[in-house]
């Protein structure tokens, strides 16, 4: 009987699905000098992949969020954003595998729009930027009674990137119809875009299901072309986690 010379390789995949709702504070001086405070709804899907025996893992994060904020002076502003991030992490484990630290870097990009319902001349502002920066994850495993549980903390802070912005007093008609470029694509650093994302979750497994609840706090800020922007988000996140082991046949 011929013997197969293929080697099975198991790829470990963890998929997380979180739904969040909470408070948002939005400012964009291109649209209004007022701050708009209200509600944000967010969906997050995250996939982490790692091969047994490898200290490296990859993490892909997709987020989409909708927000609505109001101000006594300038009515209502609506926000819509989508974000994708790709991270590489080196992994350390201590305490017999109960404590894991992952550290590395992330590249992410965001596209979105803010729309002020009261503005006539400049009702909308595009949000388009990409960044790179340090990313880290810490996980501590324990038990709640007979149920396996873990506390997980994620951190990301962009260091450098590029973003699109109209200049002060410049309309989108001038940019896209008349082609009047005025420093609209800007290289950025953490000095002009001081931002950070934190995600703290508690995960509890019961049977074959793993449930997750936690808090996300995100600060997005920028000051370019004499325009200030910020979006502050504080969200309660609820969802579940799926664990997979995919067998690849490697010759």
What does this protein structure show overall?
The chain has 251 residues and is an all-beta fold. The chain is built from one helix and twelve strands. The chain has one helix spanning 172-177; strands at residues 7-28, 32-50, 56-71, 75-94, 99-116, 124-144, 147-156, 160-164, 185-189, 196-206, 209-224, 227-250. The chain has a ten-stranded antiparallel β-barrel. It is elongated and about 60 Å long. The chain starts with 6 loop residues before the first strand and ends with a strand. The relative contact order is 0.21.
Radius of gyration (Å): 22 Å
- Side by side, the strands of the main sheet go 1-2-3-4-5-6-7-10-11-12
Q: What's the helical proportion of residues?
A: under 10%
Q: Which structural class do you get from the secondary structure elements?
A: mainly beta
Can you tell me the residue ranges where pLDDT is under 50 for at least 5 consecutive residues? 1-9
Termini separation: 18 Å
Number of strands: 12
Overall spatial form? elongated
> What is the N-to-C succession of helices and strands?
EEEEEEEEHEEEE
Mean pLDDT across the residues is 91
Classify the oligomer.
single chain
The biggest beta sheet, please? 10 strands, antiparallel, barrel
The helix count comes to: 1
Beta-strand content estimate: over 45%
Topology, pairings included?
Elements: E1 7-28, E2 32-50, E3 56-71, E4 75-94, E5 99-116, E6 124-144, E7 147-156, E8 160-164, H1 172-177, E9 185-189, E10 196-206, E11 209-224, E12 227-250
Antiparallel strand pairs: 1-2, 1-12, 2-3, 3-4, 4-5, 5-6, 6-7, 6-8, 7-10, 8-9, 10-11, 11-12
């Amino acid at each position: 009987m011929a013997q197969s010379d293929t080697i099975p390789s198991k790829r470990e995949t963890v998929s997380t699905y979180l739904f969040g709702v909470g408070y948002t504070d939005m400012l964009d001086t291109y649209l209004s000098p007022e701050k708009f405070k209200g509600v944000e709804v967010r969906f997050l899907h995250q996939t982490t992949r790692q091969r047994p025996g490898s200290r490296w893992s990859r993490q892909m994060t997709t987020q989409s969020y909708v927000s609505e904020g109001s101000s006594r002076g300038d009515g209502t502003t609506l926000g819509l954003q989508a974000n994708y991030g790709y991270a590489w992490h080196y992994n350390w484990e201590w305490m017999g595998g109960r404590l894991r630290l992952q550290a590395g870097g992330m590249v992410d990009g965001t596209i979105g729009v803010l729309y002020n319902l009261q503005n006539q001349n400049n009702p909308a502002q595009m949000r388009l930027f990409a960044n790179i920066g340090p990313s880290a994850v810490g996980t501590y495993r324990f038990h709640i009674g007979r149920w396996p549980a873990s506390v997980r903390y994620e951190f990301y802070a962009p260091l450098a990137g590029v973003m699109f912005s109209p200049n002060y007093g410049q309309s989108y008609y001038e940019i896209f119809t008349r082609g009047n470029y005025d420093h609209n694509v800007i290289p950025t650093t953490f000095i002009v875009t001081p931002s950070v994302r934190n995600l703290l979750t508690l995960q509890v497994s019961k049977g074959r299901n793993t449930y997750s609840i936690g808090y996300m706090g995100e600060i997005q800020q920028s000051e370019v072309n004499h325009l200030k922007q910020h979006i502050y988000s504080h969200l309660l996140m609820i969802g579940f986690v799926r664990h997979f082991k995919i067998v690849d046949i490697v010759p």
